[in-house]
Amino acid sequence: MIERLTIYGSYSIGVFFLSTDKYVLAPHDTPKKTITLLEDILNVNVITTTVGGSVLIGVLASGNSNGLLLPYYSSDDELKYLRSQLHINVVRLPSKRTALGNIILTNDNAAIVNPNLEVNAKKVISDTLNVDVIPSLIAGFKVVGAVGVATNKGCLIHPLASEEELKNISNILKVKVDVGTVNAGFPILGVGLVANSNGALVGGLTTGPELAHIEYSLGLVGD
């Protein structure tokens, strides 16, 4: 299933939500109607929260079914609350880089990260998410989590990515990978797309052909 969504009057829905096959994180003031839509489409429980006091959860946090990574300045209360709700590894990442959703592209099989990430941070990512961590650029970008969206069924990345990159990312994440856009030609997919193996939500400007391509590429056709 795939649906259009707008929040706070914005089509950049990916900056506000984090989705995995076990949970979705949403801003604490997300309307009830939106929470219902998220649960219906993604078929997992929605946990409302802040990350570092911010609603920009999709930018600041990164996770998969095994764990959740938060920036170093996340509060003790946020950490305690998320651990109690999710019952998985919830860890602050020891890195000066705090936009974790922008620099980590992960599913339950592997994680691709900004090549400049600190060595100890890469180990924490691997231990927390229980995956191999591979440093790589995507289409020349270090913000691999912003220019791609990965689930356990498929992955979409920036349209300037090469065929070689598609094959490499497919081998790493162990899913089919394709290029695409969202919100009427916007290439930074993580900004406008929230997805897991069950469904996807896209920014309200996303065209019919983009919807069809996203649905097909993420293995959602017929779901």
N-to-C series of helices and strands:
EEEHEHEEHEHEEHEEEHEHEEH
CATH homologous superfamily descriptor: L-arginine/glycine Amidinotransferase, Chain A
Class inferred from helices and paired strands: alpha/beta
Number of helices: 8
Gyration radius, to the nearest Å? 16 Å
Number of structural units classed as domains = 1
- Characterize the biggest β-sheet: 3 strands, mixed
Look at the structure and give the mean pLDDT.
97
- Would you identify the regions where 5 or more consecutive residues have pLDDT less than 50? none
CATH class descriptor: Alpha Beta
Named at the architecture level, the CATH assignment is 5-stranded Propeller
Q: What name does CATH use for the topology?
A: L-arginine/glycine Amidinotransferase, Chain A
The strands making up the biggest β-sheet line up spatially as 1-15-14
The residue fraction in helices comes out at 25-40%
Strand content: 15-25%
Count of individual beta strands: 15
Overview of this protein structure:
It contains eight helices and 15 strands. The chain has a three-stranded mixed sheet with strand order 1-15-14, sandwiched between helices. A three-stranded mixed sheet has the order 2-3-4. Strands 5-6-7 form a three-stranded mixed sheet, with helices on both faces. It is of the alpha/beta class and 223 residues long. The protein has helices at residues 32-42, 57-60, 76-86, 100-103, 119-129, 163-173, 189-192, 208-217; strands spanning 2-5, 18-19, 24-27, 46-49, 62-63, 67-70, 89-92, 104-106, 110-113, 132-135, 148-150, 154-157, 176-179, 193-195, 200-203. The chain has a single domain, classed as L-arginine/glycine Amidinotransferase, Chain A (5-stranded Propeller), CATH 3.75.10. It starts with a strand and ends in a 6-residue tail after the last helix. Strand 6 (67-70), helix 3 and strand 7 form a beta-alpha-beta unit. The longest helix has 11 residues, at 32-42.
